[in-house]
Amino acid sequence: VSDTNLRISGDRLINRLTELGRIGAAPGGGVRRIALTAADRDGRDLLVRWMKDAGLKVRVDRIGNIFGIRKGTTDLSPVMTGSHIDTVLDGGLYDGTLGVLAGLEVVECLNDADLQTERDLVIAAFTNEEGARFQPDMMGSLVYAGGLAIDEALTITDLDGQSVGAELEKIGYAGDMACGEIAPQAFIELHIEQGPVLEREATAIGAVENLQGISWTEIHIRGEANHAGTTPMEMRRDAGYCAAALACRVREITREIGNGQVGTVGTFTLTPSIINVVPGEARLTVDLRNADDTLLIEAENLLANCLDDLRQTERVEIDVRRLARFEPVAFDTAIVERIETNAARLGHACRRMTSGAGHDAQMMARICPTAMIFVPSRDGISHNPAEFTAPEYLIAGADILLQTVLDLTASS
Ligand code: HGY
Ligand code: MN
Ligand code: MN
User: Fold this and answer.
1) Which spans in 315-390 are helix H?
2) Residues 328-337: what's their mean pLDDT?
3) Using CA positions, which residue lies closest to atom 4 of ligand 1?
4) Which pTM value belongs to this model?
5) Using CA positions, which residue lies closest to atom 6 of ligand 1?
6) Which phi and psi (to 5°) does residue 119 adopt?
7) Is 358 in the pocket of ligand 1 (CB under 6 A)?
8) How far, in Å, is the centroid of ligand 3 from the Cα of 340?
9) Is the C-beta atom of 131 inside 6 A of ligand 1?
10) pLDDT, tens digit, for every residue of 26-64?
11) Residue 134 CA: which ligand is closest?
C-alpha cells in the first residue's frame, strides 16, 4: 500500500523535538541526556508515553532498547526505523531524536490516514548510541545486532564504576525482551548530517550509501610526578609532555594518511594537574576514522609506533585499551535508490554520500538491508548546542522517510 500524497505534520514533529529537548536542557543551552542518567530516563518515559498514545505496542529489551510496534496486515517480518535519544555533553536538539521522532510522526500520519501497512512497522530508540559515558558507542544496536554479548555489555562500567546493568535497573529500563528478538526485513534511519556537505551544496537530502570505520582507544601514561623547578629536563618522566606530543602526532597522522582520515583527542586529563608538578600521569582518548579500513589500520599502526617511541625516549609506561572498533559499512543500494526516487518525486535535491559519524544503522547493516537519509546541519555543526536544521529540511527528511517506509512495508 502506498499513498504518495501523504505528508507528515511538520508542526507536530517540531513541537515534539522541542518538547523532548526540554528534558535535560543544559544551563548554557544544549541538551544533556547522557545514557542511563535520570534525564535519559525522563526522555525515555516521554517517548514511551507518546508511543502508547499513538497506539504502539511498546517492548523493551535487556539492553534497554525501546521498540514501538505498529501491527501490519500480514505476519511478514517488520520494517524498522529509528535512532537514539541519548546525547553527548552538551548535545543539540536533533542528533538521534530526529530519527526517533520522525519515525513516530510516520506512525501518527498513518494513523490519521487510517492506513494499514502490510508489514509491521517498528520504531526503535537504541540505548547509549553516543558512548559518552559507557563505551563502545552504538552499544544498544551493537548488542541487538549480535556484535556484543548482553552479559558482557551489562558489566561495562563508567568512570565512577557504575555498571550498565545497574544503571538500566535504576532507570527502570532493564527490559525482559531478548536482544535481537525482532528480526527486521529492513532498517532505515533519518539523521542530521552533522557535517558541512549538504549545506555547502544547498542540497536538502543525503542518500547515505556508506559509513566510515571507527577506532576508539583509551591511553594511560604513567611517568613520575616531580618538582617543576629542581628536576633537570633529562631526568624527567613527564606524562603530560607525552600526552601533548601524542595529541600533536594524531594531527600529523591525519595529514600523512590523507584520504579523509580524521583523528580526535577528545579527553585529556593530567595528574596531579598542579602548576609546579611534572605530571606523573595522563589519560587521553584517540578517535580515528576512515571510510577505507586499510587506511584506518595504517593510522592505528602509526599511533602504536608513536607510543613505542615515547616509551623509549621518555621512559614512561603506556597502557592502551581499545574502546571501540567498527569497520566501514556499505548500505543497501536498493534502499538508497528508493530514497533518491522519493526525494526526486517530492521535489528535493538529493546526493549520495558517506556518513562521517557512527550511527545505529552501522550496526543494523550487519543483520538486514539498511540505509540512511541525511538532512543538512547549519554550518556543519553538531555535538554542540548550536546544532540546527531548518524546519523545511526536517520536514523534507521526514516526508521521504514516510514514503520510503511505505515502499518497504509493502510486501512486494
Ligand atoms: O561518535 C559518533 O560518531 C556517534 O555520534 N556516536
Ligand atoms: Mn546520532
Ligand atoms: Mn551523536
Assistant:
1) 333-345, 360-364
2) 98
3) 358
4) 0.95
5) 130
6) -85, 150
7) yes
8) 24
9) yes
10) 988 899 999 999 999 999 999 999 999 999 999 999 999
11) 1
